[in-house]
Write a structure and sequence with these properties.
Helix content: 40-55%
Bound molecules: shikimate-3-phosphate
Strand order of the largest sheet: 2-3-1-4-5
Number of helices: 7
Radius of gyration: 16 Å
Largest sheet: 5 strands, parallel
Strand content: 5-15%
Order of helices and strands: EHEHHEHEHHEH
Length: 183
């Protein structure tokens, strides 16, 4: 949504949503909320443990609950998880309550960035490339349909990407002031 007081980052694993989110939040003087980190904090369990005990469905339920809570705030940067856009209700909330930026990364870039990652349950696959390609086929149209603006973030450091994205946002994001409770 534009204009909006909130900035919501969407995109695949390894696109840098959390790291870039922190930098953009600093740049715009807003608090940054990382949805995965918030889920872990609330439950006291890692994303991997939640997947293990409750399955993906349990994780998605918790993710949707917190997404609904955080998107009611004003004046935040929210870094979502790669699959947070899947439930249609989540997409409606993201669309209605913030300026949505799709951080794009190619499968090649994701593979490089996530090479040492053992925390993401969806990457626990015999062929990671195939898994990431499958997720991209399923999700890219969803990201595309939801995003107010999109930018490649996988080909450079998060510091550089954040500078480029901030410049893009200066042009395209019509930022409105946060309301009192968050100011
Ligand atoms: C997921 C992405 C992860 C995390 C979970 C599921 C996904 O977040 O929410 O492992 O479905 O793509 P990041 O996109 O921050 O890695």
């Amino acid at each position: 949504m534009n204009p909006s007081p909130n900035l919501f980052l969407i995109g695949p694993m390894g696109a840098g949503k959390s790291s870039i989110g922190r930098r953009l939040a600093e740049r715009f003087g807003l608090p940054c909320i990382d949805l995965d980190a918030a889920i872990e904090q609330r439950t006291g369990a890692s994303v991997a443990t939640i997947f293990e005990i409750e399955g993906e469905a349990g994780f998605r339920r918790r993710e949707s609950e917190l997404l609904a809570e955080f998107t009611t705030r004003t004046g935040i940067v929210l870094a979502t998880g790669g699959g947070a856009v899947l439930p249609i209700e989540n997409r409606a909330l993201l669309r209605q309550r913030g300026f949505v930026v799709w951080l794009q990364a190619s499968v090649e870039q994701q593979l490089q960035r996530l090479a040492r990652d053992r925390q993401r349950p969806l990457l626990d696959a015999p062929d990671r490339r195939e898994r990431l390609e499958e997720l991209a086929r399923e999700r890219d149209p969803v990201y595309a349909e939801l995003a107010d603006c999109s930018i490649g973030s996988g080909g450079e450091s998060c510091d550089h990407a954040a500078v480029h994205i901030a410049a893009l946002l200066e042009k395209h994001w019509q930022r409105t002031p946060a309301m009192k409770e968050n100011a």
